[in-house]
Structure formats: structure tokens, C-alpha cells
Specification:
This protein is of the alpha+beta class. It has 3 domains: 167 residues, 2-Layer Sandwich (BirA Bifunctional Protein, domain 2), CATH 3.30.930; 91 residues, no CATH class; 150 residues, no CATH class. Helices cover 54% and strands 9% of the residues. The protein has a 5-stranded antiparallel beta sheet, sandwiched between helices. The chain has a 3-stranded antiparallel beta sheet with strand order 6-7-8. Helix 13 packs antiparallel against helix 14. The longest helix is centred in the last third of the chain and has 60 residues. About 6% of the residues have low confidence.
Length: 455
């Protein structure tokens, strides 16, 4: 199976060309240094330049590898297109480990000639320094025939050529590859790491809505009540949902096999067979309501920045610690901070440790830390001078130990300063988010009261 990738090079063209043609990566490992020198003498005697380049697995299409950079630039200057993208750098990697360097380089050359060979200059190299052999391509961004810029840069445009060449030489390849969007790859990566993300939260919301639904109409209603916009039209190939706080819809089949059109319909159908059993009450039962103090009341007794951070963590679901936060029940403005819990914890710990409640106290503390930092940096320079002096081993050991402690203290103070800056910047955003969260909660309470009248 061959894996291909191509990306643009906007700066430092010579670096890319040097990397692709690095002799340490392209030299054949089957020959020792002495054997290669003898072979080079024979080749030099025969004046066969192409064979030398082929032995290093470096070849040029419409250019000479030794002067590829100069030839690339000459073409750009002749057509007046020296700005923008300078070249495209790509690779073709082979899964098979028993493939020979000669065959890998042959496939790479055929691939480059068919895709770019008619109009562009291409440097083709085969690197042998990894477990999987792979060919590198450096393509000039400007055509030497008509001066037009290279447009053949999408893998989906020329992947079928790589597949055909793999089939020709008996190599494996994927017949119907699935194209994965960058965002989809990012969300799947967060899923594997167990981090909350757009997809995992949406799964949780849909599962909750389905568990309370016995028809598609009820499912749409439940999702709308939770702030989501569903589109379950029967004539649509893929059902979609727009999460709260987003503008772009998500196709539900991307969430997994349990979220396709057929799977959701089946889950709704199974809910109809469930029988709800309620306990019979003889007469009316009036619940007694006691207004007991909660953790929220305790937090609201605090003041200033410390109260803001505690209340924000409470709304985020991280207080109390023994309760696992449910991302689907957290307001959409706060969900992104679930990936920044460590920094929020460090910030609120700093506020609690030094009793900081106002902006003035925060900046005063930061100023004192900066003064201590300046002193420690001066002490460290003095200690470094002592270490550089040729003294006895005991004095040198003590100086090094003190230097290590000073460096560690400097590192801690710099972290404190960064935390102060983050608190000053983040606190304003947190205030705005909490105002919107409280306003939305009041609106939802009013809607629920109206809904209770019709139950």
C-alpha cells in the first residue's frame, strides 16, 4: 500500500531540495563505504552521471538534480512568478518492507512523470533510512512550458495513478479510501484520548434525547428543547444536527454506527416496546421543600476574582470533585474550557493561596513577583561566574547546587507571572460567559414553567 501526501513550500526552497537529496537518507545500505568508493571510481571513469545519481536514488525530471534550485528559479524569473508558493514537497511511502530500493525508485519516477512530467520540473529521491521506503518529490510551482502555476496538488486527483502503479507491480493498496476532514480527524483524536469534544458531547446529547423519545417527532422536540437544531427529513440522505453555539451542521453518521439514519430509527422503535410502570398514589401527595444551603450558596459568599473562578468551576461541573462533569449538560459557552481544567485549577489555587480578590491585589502581587525574579536572575548570573572560576571541588559543588535551586525558583516565578497574566485576561471572558449562562438559565426556567401548565 502506498501512502501519499503533498504540501506547499513557501520559503527556503534550497532547504527542501537539500533534505530530499540528503545522501545519508538515499545512499544504498547494501554497500559499504569502501565498496561504494570503488564503485564511484568505476562510474567516474565511465563518466556515467545518470548511474551515479541512480545509485544514490536521486533523479530529476526535466532538470538536473545538482542544479535543480537554480533551474527552478530560472523558470520562475523567465515568467515573472517568483512570489508566492515556491514549490510543492510530497512523498510516496510503501507499506511493504520487502520492496527493493530499485523498485521503489522506479515506481516513484513513473508516478512523477505521469502526474507532473509533461509540464513541470521534479526532483525525485528515494529515502532508505526508515523502516518503510518512501520517495520524495519536489515540484516546481511554475511550469517550464507555459508558465502556469501547478494545480495538481490534491491527493484525490492523482491517487488512482498510485493505485494503478501499485497494482501493476503487485503491491497492496486501498480500493475505496475515505476522505477524512481535518476537524473530523481532530475530534476522533480527542475521542481516543478521552477528552470532551464536539462529537462526544453530541453523542451524549442524542443518546439522552433518544432515551426520552418514542417517535421522530418527540426526538426533534427534545433536541430543540436542549438547544440543538435537528434535520431529520426523510428525503435527505444524511440526517444532521446543528450543535448549540455552532453554525455548521454535523452529519450524524460520522458519530458512529449507532447514529446512522437506520440505527436511530431502530432505537426509537425499540423505545415503543418499553412499558412505564408508575406507583399508584391514593390521593394527592404534597412534597415538602426545604431551602438548605448548597455548595453554590457557599461559593457566592466569597468575593472578587476568587468567587468568580469558584463559581465558574461550579458551572463547569468540576466542583465538587467527586461529581464527574457531564459535557452534554454544560452550557455550550463553557464546554471549550473542559480541555483547560489544569490551567484553571492552577489559577484558582494561586488566588486562594495569596488571598487575591481584586485586580489591584493581582497586579500588586505580580509586581512583587517580578521584583523577586529580577533579584534571582542577578543571583544566578553571580553563581554562574563562580562556577566558571576554577575553585576547589567542595565550593564548586555547593555553587552548582545553589545554582540549580535558583534556576528552579526562577522557573516557578515565571509560571506565577504567566498565571497572573492569564487571570487578568481570562477573568473578563469568564464574566461575560457567566452573564450569558445565567440569562439562558432564567429563560429556560420560564419556558419550563409554561410547559408545566400543559402537562
Amino acid at each position: 500500500m502506498a501512502v501519499t501526501k503533498l504540501w506547499a513550500v513557501k520559503y527556503n526552497l534550497s532547504y527542501v531540495l537539500d533534505y530530499a537529496g540528503n545522501p545519508e537518507k538515499t545512499q544504498n545500505p547494501n554497500y559499504s563505504e569502501q565498496e561504494y568508493q570503488s564503485l564511484s571510481d568505476v562510474i567516474a571513469y565511465a563518466k556515467d552521471e545518470e548511474k551515479t545519481e541512480r545509485e544514490f536514488y536521486v533523479d530529476g525530471i526535466n532538470c538536473n538534480p545538482a542544479t535543480a534550485r537554480t533551474q527552478f528559479i530560472t523558470v520562475k524569473q523567465s515568467f515573472g512568478k517568483t512570489d508566492g508558493i515556491q514549490a510543492y514537497h510530497g512523498y510516496l511511502s510503501f507499506k511493504e518492507q520487502n520492496i527493493t530500493p530499485e523498485l521503489a525508485h522506479k515506481i516513484g519516477m513513473e508516478f512523477a512523470k505521469e502526474v507532473w512530467g509533461e509540464r513541470f520540473q521534479v526532483l525525485v529521491t528515494t529515502h532508505l533510512n526508515t523502516q518503510h521506503l518512501h520517495c520524495h518529490f519536489v515540484i516546481n510551482s511554475v511550469s517550464f512550458t507555459d508558465g502556469k502555476r501547478c494545480q495538481d496538488t490534491s491527493w484525490f486527483k492523482f491517487r488512482h495513478i498510485a493505485d494503478r502503479l501499485c497494482e501493476k507491480y503487485g503491491l497492496d493498496y486501498i480500493t475505496n479510501p475515505k476522505r477524512q476532514q481535518p476537524n473530523e480527524y481532530y475530534y476522533n483524536k480527542l475521542d481516543k484520548a478521552g477528552m470532551p469534544n464536539r462529537y462526544s458531547i453530541l453523542r451524549e446529547v442524542i443518546d439522552k434525547a433518544i432515551s426520552h423519545s418514542r417517535s421522530m417527532i418527540e426526538l426533534e422536540y427534545n433536541l430543540k428543547q436542549m438547544g440543538y437544531i435537528p434535520d431529520f427529513k426523510s428525503n435527505h440522505k444524511y440526517w444532521t444536527v446543528i450543535p448549540k453555539g455552532y453554525k455548521k451542521a454535523v452529519r450524524l453518521y460520522k458519530l458512529g454506527d449507532d447514529y446512522t439514519n437506520e440505527a436511530i430509527s431502530e432505537r426509537i422503535y425499540r423505545n415503543r416496546a418499553k412499558v412505564e410502570i408508575k406507583r399508584f398514589h391514593n390521593g394527592e401527595f404534597k412534597k415538602r421543600q426545604y431551602n438548605l444551603p448548597t455548595r453554590e450558596h457557599k461559593i457566592l459568599r466569597q468575593s472578587g476574582l476568587y468567587r468568580l473562578y469558584l463559581y465558574y468551576c461550579y458551572k463547569l461541573g468540576t466542583l465538587p470533585k467527586y461529581q464527574k462533569p457531564k459535557p452534554s449538560e454544560i452550557h455550550y459557552l463553557l464546554r471549550d474550557d473542559l480541555t483547560r481544567l489544569e490551567s484553571l485549577t492552577a489559577q484558582v489555587t494561586l488566588l486562594a493561596r495569596h488571598n487575591i480578590s481584586t485586580d489591584e491585589q493581582l497586579f500588586s502581587y505580580k509586581h512583587s513577583v517580578e521584583e523577586n525574579l529580577i533579584k534571582l536572575i542577578a543571583d544566578r548570573e553571580h553563581l554562574r561566574k563562580q562556577v566558571r572560576l576554577k575553585t576547589d571541588d567542595v565550593t564548586l559543588s555547593k555553587a552548582r547546587e545553589k545554582l540549580s535551586r535558583t534556576t528552579e525558583n526562577i522557573r516557578k516565578l515565571r509560571k506565577e507571572i504567566k498565571l497572573c497574566d492569564d487571570i487578568a485576561e481570562r477573568s473578563k471572558v469568564m464574566e461575560q460567559n457567566l452573564e450569558q449562562v445565567i440569562a439562558d438559565e432564567k429563560t429556560n426556567e420560564k419556558e419550563m414553567k409554561k410547559y408545566e401548565q400543559f402537562r
